[in-house]
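Regression test attached.
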Amino acid sequence: MSILLDVADVTAGYGNTTVLRGISLTLKEGKSIGLFGPNGHGKTTLLHTISGLIRPSSGTIHYMQRDISGESSANIVAKGLVHSPQGNTLFGDMGISETLELAAFTPRARTDKNLNLDYVYKLFPRLSERKKQLAKTLSGGERQMLSIGCAIMCSPKILMLDEPTLGLSPRLKKELGQAISKISLNGISMIIVEQDVEFLLSLTQRLYMIEHGEVVREIDRTDAPAHEEIMQLYFGGKQT
Amino acid sequence: MSDALLTTLASGLVLGSLYALMASGLSVVWTTLGVFNFAHGALMMFGAYIAWTVSEAAGLGLLSGILAGTIVTGLVGVIIERLLIRSFYGNRNMLLITVMTTLAAMIIIEKGAQMIWGARLKQLPRLIEGEVSLFGTTVSAHEALIIGLAPTILLALWAFTTITSTGRSLRAVGQNQTSAALIGIHVPRAFSIAFAISAGLAGLTGALLGSIRFITPAMGSEPLVKAMIVVIFGGLGSLGATAGAAYVIGMLEAILILTVGLYWTPSLMFLVMIIVLVLRPNGLFGRRLI
């Protein structure tokens, strides 16, 4: 199975602050991975670096065997590597359908526009019920659906979701989880950032724990640790 | 209705049309980049001179002059964005810095025009000779053309920003640059397009105005102030609000000139703007502050 994304020894940060300190991970075709770990340790920064919002100061990011580090976000999206950022507020004064149509902006996304639009509305019927509603008047959950919907409109090969269920009710979280697993069953590889390890295990095959801008542990779904052990990973305690 | 009032109405329409063209350009740059372009009036003047050079000095006719004035000024707008604005994106003081850099551009263009074309007054012929009767009063055919052209161009601009993908991408960039980049929009390209459209509109206004007023290196400063009043008065950000406000201001100016005279009109217009902003802080048609 070929490697879709290969992040090798990447260092990046904001201004003089280094957040990622030589991080490496790989995503194989047809698989999804999850990232977890304490807040402020580089999960979001890693996604920003992969999607071109931040330039890595060293290291390489290979997507389908080509180095994409240093390319603009727009070019990276056009290749099918799509990022739905945390708390995406999108375009406040645009309606749902206008936003989704606009999101099919790159040439490859434009060819799949109608197909993807139908798919998004089927995935999130709530969006199809209020096509004219402005993004700024949507609830947190609806906005998250719109953000994921926009990412789908970009025709992704890899979809990166940054805390898609942050601040949502358990019911909405379950609903979004089901939608996300449907997307992954459709053959789209995913990189999902979440705090809830069990949630990640239900959606991905491999987890990376990120601490201090490094991968400190890799977990395969087949030998996933028990709940207590995960708690220990988060909060410290006796070494395993 | 009295003749004086009808004439006033007609001249208010002409003024409103010119302000609408000027202010919509200012508004496009503001909504996309969050920059208030103080060189907008100078770009208008530049468009008039280019039109004059092509039409009169080179003798290629007014229509080619107007076309050249629009296109060349649009390109100058792109250059201004690239040289004087682009490096300051993301800077915390971007708004203040670009006030200074666009003011610098204004001075450079004005002095440059004086060096190239001299201080002597120039004027363009009219696109169409003759007169047209309008609401029982007569205006020159050229003015009638402006009255008709302005809403047409505004409508086209509105259609561009609401229907086309490129136009929508400009609005998207104005509302959220990160989200725009993450759906594949080239943000710097959107900035260039916005500046090209804005400066092109300024150039067109100048080329049209050059047939009604004298072309001088300083001719842009008064329309710039008026366009600023219009944009702020209408409520920053929306094209419809800007266009509406342009006609309100045009009419108001014509009526004030008729009633209180030319001398007090500018100060009274500022007074009206201040009163409107006190009562409606988001502008006459504005919904919210950005």
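Expected vs. actual: identical. Chain A has ten helices and ten strands.
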